Amino acid sequence: MNRLHERIIIGPVLLAAVACAGTHVPPKALTDARDDYLHARDGLAMQLDPTDVHEAQLALERAERAWEASPDDPTAVDLAIIADRRALLAQSQAATIKAYDDRNRAAAALETAKAAQLQSARAQLTQSEQTLGATQMQLNEQRAAAAAQQQRLQDLETKLKDARQTIAKIASVKDDERGMVITLSGEVLFQTGKWELKPAAMAKLDQVAEALRTKEQHIVVFGYTDTVGTRDHNMALSQMRAQTVRDYLVEKGLPGDLVTAQGKGPDDPISDNTSVEGRAQNRRVEIVVQPSK
After folding, report:
1. Which one, of 156, 237, 258, 150, lies nearest residue 191 by Cα?
2. What CA–CA distances, in Å, run from 292 to 123, 158, 250?
């Protein structure tokens, strides 16, 4: 039954009740029942529980008819109280239904939010695990590379030690800030004023090259002279002698990009140039094996 139809039914009933009752004023119970019914009819109760609203309407109609028939009969008041209780019950039931629905919607929203948070947390955890795995892999690779580098340096050190022992049999070997220094006398390597290698010098350099071939370290060949003659001549001669030794070592298997030559002329003497013996010591070639980096 729609609201217009309700008004059509209740309106005449109320008017008839007032007319028939004459000067009688409806009891408070009846007016309360009317007000509560209208509130139920126009509120959530009609939307959520129209059956209870209809029961309240029927109870109100019975109370109206009873009061119309006998305004002084206590039964009319009792029926009005019943009608009022039914209207209030309809409102209460509607409120309960709404609260239940609201709770279910809130619970569903909470579950949805929890599911979304859980999914986000799982995604973040997966990303973190992937990042951690990649980091761990990189760390393992770095450790492996460091271990390989350390092993390579140890191997080079061992080979250099072995080479030192071999070279020490045919030349002077010492260490300074430049690295391992192999010194060969110029008298052994070259004729006076020349830069071509003597046959005996080649034999010695063969052993040096064999000992250094697998070291993979930078090598600088320094040429030195005494102070006899002009400086320009000595610088040029020392450069040619250093270049000759360098080229021979490369020819015998040392990496060309790791071996360089430098003429020092009369600079950095190791003995006094005023004596024959001193000048002989200054005429030399130094093969410097630089430390590994």
Report:
1. 237
2. 47, 12, 19
CB 30 within 8 A of CB 67: yes
Pairing state of beta strands 259-265 and 219-224?
A: parallel
Tokens of 98: 């709404």
**Statement to judge: residues 50 and 106 lie in one domain:** yes
**pLDDT per residue as tens digits for the range 199-230:** 999 999 999 999 998 778 899 999 999 999 99
Q: How far apart are CA 243 and CA 231, in angstroms?
A: 18
Q: pTM higher than 0.70, yes or no?
A: no
Q: Which domain holds residue 238?
A: 168-289
77 or 248, which is more confident? 248
pLDDT at 23: 61
Q: How far apart are CA 291 and CA 293, in angstroms?
A: 6
Q: What is the DSSP string of 4-16?
A: HHHHHHHHHHHHH
Nearest to 165 by CA among 104, 131, 207: 207
Torsion of CA 135, 137, 140, 142, to 10 degrees: -70
The count of structural domains within the chain is: 2
CA 164: distance to chain centroid? 49
